[in-house]
Amino acid sequence: MPDFKSDPQLSGGGESRDFLREIVRRDMLAGAYDGRVVTRFPPEPNGYLHIGHAKSICLNFGVAREFDGVCHLRFDDTNPETEDMKYVESIIRDVRWLGYDWGEKLFFASDYFEPLYEFAARLIRDGKAYVDSQTEEEIREHRGTVTEAGRESPYRDRSVEENLDLFARMRAGEFPDGAHVLRAKGDMAASNMKMRDPLLYRIRHATHYRRGDDWCLYPMYDFAHPLSDAVEKITHSICTLEFENNRAIYDWLLDNLFQEPRPHQYEFARLNLDYTIMSKRKLLELVEEGLVSGWDDPRLPTIAGMRRRGYTPEGIRLFAARIGVDKSNSRVSMDLLEDAIRDDLNARAPRVMAVLRPLKVTIANYPEGKVEWLEAPHWPRDIDKEGSRKVPLSREIFIERTDFLENPPADWIRLRPGGEVRLRSAYFIRCEEIIRDPATGDAIELRCTYDPDSLGKPAKGARKKTTAAQWVSASHALPAEVRLYDRLFTTADPESAGEGRSFRDFLNPGSVEVLTGCMLEPGLADASPGDRFQFLRHGYFIADEADSRPGSPVFNRIVDLKDRYRLQPGK
Ligand code: ATP
Ligand code: MG
After folding, report:
1. Is the distance from CB of 69 to CB of 91 less than 8 angstroms?
2. Known catalytic residue: 44?
């Protein structure tokens, strides 16, 4: 088990002193809850988790770790229409993969239907809740507006007996959907609209993925959530800012049904990430409409997608720690996420050579049939790791097409006619002749010579102004498919697409580029699905978990080496 408390990445913030941790610290010092800290992560199993959820997971599990507390994983599954066991399974897998553990504390709100029903009955008996038989439209009309008080329901003064009877019959299935609802007796003139007799229960004749047809009476989020927190003895119930106004209901319910110390709700700003979307409904649309290849499409901000893309849990936790938690909503640049992923991969991904767009080079003065196995380091000098492998050099090699230009600008540091470049971990070569496609005139091969004295010697003179190019021996090269990913959308905030436009209109048609016929150094034949490398000068790559096979690898680019994007609208 990793050491969470001493590792700021794992704890999700280490010594960070954000306002939530201040509150928890204050409560600890004051002896509230007898020093207990219990948080929870409460996903609804109606979709896959995404990077926004990861922020909440790192926060809730991170706070619990730092304060010797526990964090519950609770499925908030009170809505029969959209929930499914496959989402429960994916969520469990994703939270575990992120590196967090809930021990025995796995809960389902749908296991609380009975106690929740009893709490509601108690509110009725105390004269604090009533069965309303208005239609949905009537309820809406009576609610009033921000500037105008609402009006009380004509059913508000039903007797306790009548309310209890109706509520029991709602549960027993005597009424169709929408015939009645249970409401709290709030204040129809409250300035916080949420307090205008909030709905607590509704009738839904639908099959629940866990409870089947046991229930046709379902609690609303505003009722189920605080009471589930109280049942589990949560201390700090952390949610996103949209629920700020719901806190009044939270407090009202718990003050009426529990005594201090009872759970309290705190809100933080949700994560909004540029060039992607975070709404589960819209992500579901992308998946169901086939606009992406599935929930684990490497372009998606889902945890499953990021895992397939090659992001590491450590990199994601580092990102969460760096963005911190705040009380005002803002957007976060994709660069911040990619920087964290790069920073994590830098010390864990060995360097290897891959030629993605090959150009053949024949080294004319290199003896035919000769093969040299040259020592090439896996790590650059600034990384405190040892390790190297041997790569074969022979007369015919591939270099990167983009490493040669026939008429380059003056500051060109790669190969040009008559110019030199170093083959990485090998010799300098000089371009002597261009072999052309007779039909198009394009260069299809270069004839070069090599300098047998240049191996391992520092470059001097004009050579110092050139770069070292990756290469692979043609007869040893391992052919591979490589997938390069770019942003999924062409605009930073596709969810605010504007009048009459959909986020679909901003899908980036160049979000994936599949390169076949890439040439890799032969040692990569041993790569197992999930292995990560830095392809020198190309970025970080992972052998795809689904499609890669030893001997015929498929690599995904996890992230480029720098935050440069080749995004061209309309590409
Ligand atoms: P839904 O619209 O289905 O409610 P949701 O994104 O809120 O979608 P939940 O399953 O309810 O999904 O979310 C579980 C937890 O994750 C909640 O506590 C929620 O506050 C948190 N969460 C969801 N999205 C984000 C986000 N973008 N940033 C931070 N936390 C988030
Ligand atoms: Mg939600």
Report:
1. no
2. yes
Pick from 249, 279, 310: which is nearest to 485 by CA?
310
Please name the amino acid found at residue 200.
Answer: L
Q: Which amino acid is at 421?
A: V
Question: Rounded to an integer, what distance in angstroms lies between the CA atom of residue 393 and that of residue 414?
Answer: 20
Let me know if 280 is a catalytic residue.
yes
Per-residue DSSP letters for 403-457?
A: GB-SS--TT--SB-TT-EEEETTS-EEEEEEEEE-TTT--EEEEEEEE-TT-TTP
User: The tokens 């209901």 sit on which residue?
Assistant: 249
With both helix axes pointing from N to C terminus, report the angle between 221-231 and 113-125 in degrees, rounded to the nearest 10: 110
Residues 491, 503: contact at Cβ < 8 Å? no
Over residues 52-71, the mean pLDDT reads: 97
Q: Would you say how long the chain is, in residues?
A: 571
Q: Which residues contact 420 (CB under 8 A, 6 or more apart)?
A: 428, 429, 430, 431, 451, 462, 463, 466
Separation CA 513–CA 254 (nearest Å)? 54
Taking the complete model, does pTM exceed 0.90, yes or no? yes
Give the residue from 168, 74, 75 showing the smallest Cα distance to 120.
Answer: 168
What SS3 state is found at 74? Answer: strand
Ligand 2 centroid vs 44 CA: distance in angstroms? 7
User: Cα separation of 341 and 412, whole Å?
Assistant: 30
R_g (Cα) of the chain, nearest Å = 31
Residue nearest (by alpha carbon) to ligand 1 atom 1: 280
Decide the pairing of beta strands 478-485 and 512-520: antiparallel
What is the spatial distance between Cα 306 and Cα 53, in angstroms, rounded to a whole number? 13
Ligand 2 center from residue 501 Cα (angstroms): 25
Structure tokens at 526: 């041993």
Do β-strands 199-203 and 217-219 pair in parallel, antiparallel, or remain unpaired? antiparallel
Separation between Cα atoms, residue 185 and residue 180, nearest integer Å: 15
Q: Is 240 in the pocket of ligand 1 (CB under 6 A)?
A: yes
pLDDT digits (tens, 9 = 90+) for 212-237: 999 999 999 999 999 999 999 999 99
> Side by side, which strands form the sheet with 471-473?
468-469, 420-423, 428-436, 443-450, 358-363, 396-400, 471-473
- Ligand 1, atom 9: nearest CA belongs to which residue? 43
Does 429 score more than 60 pLDDT?
yes
Strand-pair partners of 473: 397
Which residue bears the tokens 């504390």? 105
**Active-site residue (options: 65, 202, 280, 307):** 280
Tell me: the pLDDT tens digits for 486-534?
999 999 999 987 888 999 999 999 999 999 999 999 999 999 999 999 9
DSSP string for 352-419: E-EESSEEEEEETTSPTT--EEEEEESS-TTS----EEEEEE-SEEEEEGGGB-SS--TT--SB-TT-
Catalytic annotation on 148?
A: no
What is the residue with the minimal CA distance to atom 26 of ligand 1? 52
Q: Which ligand is nearest to the CA of 76?
A: 1
